[in-house]
Design the sequence.
């Protein structure tokens, strides 16, 4: 049998949120490649090899997967959430572009439920109108670019979803993010801190920007910020489907 590479999204954490398509690929795989905690979610079985690695070796991981596929192995690269959202699908194609022979490899990308959509569903529909997703980590881009995109998203009155908000190595940066949001959006804008959604460690808080503190987020938290029309109705938070220019800064 010829080899192939699948990049699969395992969803936000709960096993019942893994799609049947992804489960089928995992059942057919000879090898699983991925970041240590994601590979740990895969149950061992006879004939299946697990290759876990650190979170800063994405290109090495992609290269290893392509090399194994060239040997006739069936390889699944696992990501959390969706593999195309700040995850391994892009890393794989970077490696394909750098290795012309890899273009002959059979590749499939299997979508998964993203952390931001799982978090949004927990509180209602805060992403019910135009929204954007921003990775707050400066591992692969300068923080000045994070600030630039953040300000323009706020001025465009987008609802926003933030990944990787606050690591132990850069706790001060999320404080800066909150300061920028208060400058651009005002103190009353709703902000949602959704940690480890769909797992036993799930914790969700809905506050206003003037109540938000950096300590409310860590690397397992997705942060959602509403637009100028986002509101509460009972226990729910939602963004209406209509929009005006009233919340936009030129």
Sequence:
């Amino acid at each position: 049998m010829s080899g192939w590479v699948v990049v699969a999204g395992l969803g936000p954490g709960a096993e019942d949120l893994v799609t049947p398509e992804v489960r089928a690929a995992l059942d057919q795989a000879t090898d699983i490649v991925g970041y240590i905690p994601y590979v740990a979610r895969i149950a061992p079985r006879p004939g299946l090899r697990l290759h876990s690695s650190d979170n800063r070796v994405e290109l090495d991981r992609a290269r290893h997967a392509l090399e194994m596929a060239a040997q006739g192995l069936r390889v699944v690269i696992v990501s959390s959430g969706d593999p195309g959202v700040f995850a391994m699908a892009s890393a794989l194609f970077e490696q394909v572009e750098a290795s012309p022979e890899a273009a002959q490899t059979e590749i499939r990308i299997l979508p998964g439920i993203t952390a931001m959509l799982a978090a949004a569903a927990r509180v209602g529909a805060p992403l019910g109108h135009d929204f954007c997703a921003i990775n707050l980590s400066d591992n692969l881009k300068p923080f000045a670019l994070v600030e630039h995109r953040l300000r323009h998203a706020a001025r465009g009155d987008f609802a926003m979803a933030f990944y990787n908000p606050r690591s132990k190595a850069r706790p001060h940066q999320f404080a800066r993010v909150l300061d920028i949001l208060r400058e651009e959006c005002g103190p009353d804008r709703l902000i949602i801190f959704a940690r480890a959604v769909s797992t036993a460690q799930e914790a969700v808080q809905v506050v206003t920007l003037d109540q938000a503190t950096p300590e409310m987020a860590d690397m397992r938290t997705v942060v959602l910020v509403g637009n100028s029309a986002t509101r509460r109705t009972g226990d729910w938070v939602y963004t209406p489907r209509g929009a005006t220019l009233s919340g936009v800064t030129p």
